[in-house]
Amino acid sequence: MTGKQFATGDSVTVRRMFPLGHIRTPRYIMGQTGVISRAVAEFPNPEELAYGRKGLPKKMLYRVRFRQGDIWPASGSGKAISGQTMPEMQATRLRSRFTIIG
């Protein structure tokens, strides 16, 4: 088990990772910054399960809130896109937005 790495309200950025094979991170969200909405739970790693493995160790899953206007540019009419999207992301795909020194 991995335990919680982030708390509700933490600012995180989705890592830009392009490993070969199956990944569960949508490419459109890579490199984007969002806020942890909540820790969901630990689950077997779906990237391992996809290959018929046991999915261990389990991975912590977080619901992360992103502003849609930060992900997608304005529509053809020039209007900014409003709203939010909240994908569930594995902790291993996230990094803290802020680095604490000291």
Assembly status:
single chain
The percent range for strand residues is 25-35%
**What is the H/E string?**
EEHEHEEE
CATH structural architecture: Roll
Low-confidence stretches: none
Q: Which outline best applies?
A: globular
Describe the SSE topology:
Blueprint: E1 11-14, E2 33-43, H1 46-49, E3 59-67, H2 68-71, E4 84-85, E5 88-90, E6 94-96
Antiparallel strand pairs: 1-2, 1-6, 2-3, 3-4, 3-5
General description of the model:
This protein is mainly β. It has one domain (11-96): SH3 type barrels, CATH 2.30.30. Helix content is 8%, strand content 31%. The protein has two helices and six strands, in the order ββαβαβββ. The protein has helices spanning 46-49, 68-71, and strands at 11-14, 33-43, 59-67, 84-85, 88-90, 94-96. Strands 1, 2, 3, 4, 5 and 6 form a six-stranded antiparallel sheet that branches. The longest helix is centred in the middle third of the chain and has 4 residues, at 46-49. It is globular, with a radius of gyration of 15 Å. The two termini are 28 Å apart. The relative contact order is 0.28. The mean pLDDT is 85.
Keywords:
mainly beta, SH3 type barrels, 102 residues
Summed up, what is this model?
The protein is mainly β.
